[in-house]
Amino acid sequence: MTEQGATTFQHEVLAAVFTIGRDLHGFASLKVLLWQRAQWPDAGRWALPGGAVRLDETVDDSMSRQLAEKVDLAGVSHLEQLGVFSAPDRVPAGPGRPARVIATGFLGLVPSGVTPSLPEDTDWETVDRLSPIALDHGRIIDRAHDRLRAKVSYTNLAFGLAPAEFTLAELAGIYRAVLGHDIDPSNLQRVLGRRGMIETVGRTAPPGASGGRPAALYRFTTADLTVTDPFAAFRPPS
Q1: Cβ neighbours of residue 130 closer than 8 Å, sequence gap 6 or more
Q2: DSSP line for 143-169
Q3: Alpha helices, H only, 36-167
Q4: pLDDT per residue over 101-132, tens digit each?
Q5: Helix, strand or coil for residue 9?
Q6: Of 38, 79, 93, 233, whose CB has the highest number of CB atoms within 10 Å?
Q7: Comparing C-alpha atoms, which of 122, 32, 130, 114 is closest to residue 74?
Q8: What's the burial of 139, exposed, middle or buried (CB within 10 Å: 0-12/13-18/19+)?
Q9: Fold category of 9-137 in CATH
Q10: pLDDT band at 211 (very low <50, low <70, confident <90, very high)
């Protein structure tokens, strides 16, 4: 805030945190973490987790703190700054509220199968079937999804959504959920293997209900973000 009579400002942080869940048909789907606002503005709509930055912390520290305190997301495998959202009217002014609120957006990932404890007003929503979204948080979700789609093509960022060990079919499902189109598991193995991104663990997955040959298990070779092919893109099948 500034001195009386001057325009008041607030800086907040907001995170679009994604994970992989299952849709109604059992297919992998991309989900984002949202909580339901109880107060004006946009009461009843769903919003991204976050809040105001304290005077004694950086935006990165503030985002990590608020994810840990509010939604117990100690299982976040990746968190990066997404950009600044500074439209003058992005949050309406009101009694006792700052005249302008600027946000630093973040992209966060939680591995498939990790189930952090969540408050009653917080849930994972499927990205392509979202409930009404508060304020400009839908724009932040779209920006984060675009960033994620790009990075799973030219980096190893899919490690942030994958379980520690997975079959090629499971990994292809993760890529499909992020990219929005089918990915052939055999082609995915060739591409990621050539880039040195995945390796076998020397074991197989438990047999499924239909039987058949057990599928080999793989893992990412590193959990550090690495650019593997700066010009790569996974394109829809022709």
Answers
A1: 32, 34, 46, 138, 141
A2: HHHHHHHHHHHHBSGGGGTS-SSB-HH
A3: 59-71, 137-154
A4: 999 999 999 999 888 888 889 999 999 999 99
A5: strand
A6: 79
A7: 114
A8: middle
A9: Nucleoside Triphosphate Pyrophosphohydrolase (3.90.79)
A10: low
Domain boundaries, the chain: 9-137, 157-220
Percent of the chain topping pLDDT 90: 74
Quick one: tokens of 101? Answer: 């609120």
Asked whether the domain spanning 157-220 has the same topology as the one spanning 9-137, the reply is no
Distance CA 190, CA 186 (A): 6
Neighbours of 134 (CB within 10 A): 19
* Region 145-171 average pLDDT: 96
Q: Could you say which of 1.10.10.10, 3.40.30.10, 3.20.20.70, 1.25.10.10 is the CATH number of the domain covering 157-220?
A: 1.10.10.10
